[in-house]
Amino acid sequence: MDATLRTRWEQLRARVDDACRGAGRDPGEVTILPVSKTFGPERIREAVDLGLHRFGENKVQEIRDKATALATEEADPGIDWVMIGHLQTNKAGVVARLAAEVQSLDRLKLAVALDRHLRAESRVIDVLVQIKTSDEPSKYGLEPDRLLPFLDELSGYPTLRVRGLMTLAINASDPDSVRGCFRRLRELRDLAASHGHDLPRLSMGMSGDFPLAIAEGATEVRIGTALFGARSYPDSYYWPERS
Ligand SMILES: *Cc1c(COP(=O)(O)O)cnc(C)c1O
């Protein structure tokens, strides 16, 4: 057992709980999605030993490699892989086979491909619609004004259970603009509700900005660095548009 990982997990949970109380919310309303991208199967095994069983990844190849490595161990770790990164349509088959959930659904073409593969696998998965909440030129995500028609379109694909919305805030040091992105996602959730779409989950906030996301109603924060430590790849590897 890795004492450091346990300590980091406990400290992180305490910070999330504090942020909830600071916002007048019940800590039981906010879950933490550990983001294990770039960390290997040994590290994930340690996290499983701490009782964690859902892991966010943003590359299909990493899900495939880690799922394979961990499945060959004696005890089935029972991991739920959550896809949080940009997903190419031609990789939908792997995700339909291995992922428990996709939080980066941002276009109909991807929904169609996922649905086709999920039918073949006789599987149904939870999905969140990723929304572009900032004007950064090339960030992925659906344009906010497309949400209502997109939700109507998705109702034709019963293998996809639409459970909520996801966003990445603008990469800025100014807390007001970051918080504005989170607020926009919450308002979209409310707008969808007024049109009959129940979207209980809001996945927003990362290591550097989760208290603001919690203040705006996040039900899930996606945390990598604050739990697993610094990654050896720069973020530009994941977000080429930011390099
Ligand atoms: C990497 C990543 C995170 C976690 O980022 P940290 O700053 O390391 O907590 C959250 N969401 C997405 C989509 C990511 O790619």
From TrEMBL:
Molecular-function annotations in GO: pyridoxal phosphate binding
Family annotation (InterPro entries): Ala_racemase_N, PLP-binding_barrel, PyrdxlP_homeostasis
Gene3D superfamilies per record: Alanine racemase (3.20.20.10)
Matching CDD domains: PLPDE_III_YBL036c_like (cd00635)
N6-(pyridoxal phosphate)lysine sites (modified residues): K37
Highest rank taxon of the organism: Bacteria
Pfam family, one: Ala_racemase_N
Residue ranges of domain Alanine racemase N-terminal in the record: 29-231
Alphabetized UniProt keyword annotations: Pyridoxal phosphate
Names of the cofactor(s): pyridoxal 5'-phosphate
Homology family: Belongs to the pyridoxal phosphate-binding protein YggS/PROSC family.
Reported function: Pyridoxal 5'-phosphate (PLP)-binding protein, which is involved in PLP homeostasis.
PANTHER family registered for this protein in UniProt: PROLINE SYNTHETASE CO-TRANSCRIBED BACTERIAL HOMOLOG PROTEIN, PYRIDOXAL PHOSPHATE HOMEOSTASIS PROTEIN
Protein name: Pyridoxal phosphate homeostasis protein
